[in-house]
Amino acid sequence: MIILGIDVGGTGIKGALVDVETGILTSNRRRIPTPSPATPEAVAETIQKLKQHFKWEGTVGCGFPTPLKHGKCLTGGNLHEDWKDLKVDEFFQQKTGNKYTIVNDADAAGLAEVTFGAGKGVKGTVILITLGTGIGSALFLDGKLLPNTEFGHVLHKNGAIFEKYAADSVRVEENLSRKQWGKRLHKYFKHINLILSPDLIIIGGGSSKKFNKFEAQINIDTEIIPAKAENDAGIIGAALAAK
Ligand code: BGC
User: Fold this and answer.
1) pLDDT of 124-141, one tens digit each?
2) For residues 152 and 204, is the Cβ–Cβ distance under 8 A?
3) Are 151 and 127 in contact (CB under 8 A)?
4) Is 65 in the pocket of ligand 1 (CB under 6 A)?
5) Band of pLDDT at residue 47, cut at 50, 70 and 90
6) Superfamily covering domain 121-227
């Protein structure tokens, strides 16, 4: 079965057709920069362009980069405040005519990795952390997802969240070397390791491709590995969620 998977990110909106039985992309991947400002109307237009590019009339699985509850945005996150309280699935359906399953972007990446990738068959607690514009999380116990965790929002200091200290976008903004950034990640993962005692940590998002450039800085007693599908995990998992 083929489904169009779309991964809405803070900087890029990516889509591809996915074989949801194998997790393999059956088309090229298409990336369109996230509109700025990323208002609901502007993002829906980008989704429409992807739909037209793939000539797709079927169901769409969409990973979305904000806290969600039953497809409804709880905050606009790194997109735009107008998303707050919007039912994203209904909104995209109204704008494009397709049916949508909306899932948090990190949950999507986690679903792909636990089903086909780095977390396949792993028992116990597996956590996937995406490092991109924000920090997203997906938590699994024996392969089953506990959705909508927001471990990028654990407090760092003075009421500030870790996302604002250790996301990949912060590395770029503050012009940090990967070594300096890796030291921040070490603090973050040490804390995550302490509060969750996971059996495996998987790194997803754009940074998963560069894992070898910062892994030496993270010294914790839990195995930590990059997502097998790297940044495509979000697209694959979004499609999988709509299966
Ligand atoms: C959002 C998460 C999202 C993460 C990665 C965070 O700012 O709160 O829901 O998963 O960014 O996009």
Assistant:
1) 999 999 999 999 999 999
2) no
3) yes
4) yes
5) very high
6) ATPase, nucleotide binding domain (3.30.420.40)
